Amino acid sequence: MLSSLLVLTACLNRETEQDSSSENDEYELVWADEFDYEGLPDSSRWIYDTEGNEARWGNAEEQWYTENDIENARVADGILKITAIREDYLNRKFTSARLVSNAAWQYVKVEVRAKVPPGRGTWSAIWMMPGGWTFHDGNWPDIGEFDIMEHVGYDPGVIHASAHSRDYQWQKGTQKTNTIKINDASDRFHSYILEWDADKVSAYVDDSLYFSYKNEGLGESKWPYDKPFYLILNVAVGGAWGSVQGIDESAFPQTMDIDYVRIYRKK
After folding, report:
1. Does the reported pTM lie above 0.85?
2. d(CA 136, CA 51)
3. pLDDT per position as a tens digit, 89-98
4. Is there a domain that residue 16 lies in?
5. Among 61, 62, 111, 150, which one carries the catalytic annotation?
């Protein structure tokens, strides 16, 4: 009996190693930030996005995104910390940060290992927009959007992934979307993953696939995703979604912790 168990264990170990090797052979790393430094986010990798502050980002958001403010975005002990703070600033009650990658990619695997803030009124996100697009360009959602992870603090542990386009968008209630419940999303790090190619986009939390949308071949109004997209990391406060059950000002500051960001492309 013991020898049989040993053989079975050895076989399982070999299968696990083969699966891991197969996955590693399928992808190559093309961009990453391991946050193995201290201070402000690496300016060669990240840009601060403040363009929509005056317009409250089109969502009636309550925060003002700052630039080069170590209280809102800093790297310490191997972790990027994006922090929303309760403070009066330029006629707003909160400050936070919105970081944008300085590169854009097409048909990649994106992996961001993160821990999300729980406070009521927070709206944390890991998402993607088309390369070169800025808030003042408008034309949303026709240009497309990927939401790899969205979490609102009043609905603890419910993780959303979505794809938006002209025909499939939240304003019409037609967006391609799904949710998964991760009870310890605010207590432990999890990997939020997007796999995207010309035929399909899929989202995972760790190893759990919970969202998939196939290219229907019906044109750009439904699939505007055949172009490079950049990555966005941010913690908003309030807004059309984040403040549905109000904002608990006493809960702030609130931080999204990011362990690493890795972008892979199939070989």
Report:
1. yes
2. 7
3. 999 999 999 9
4. no
5. 150
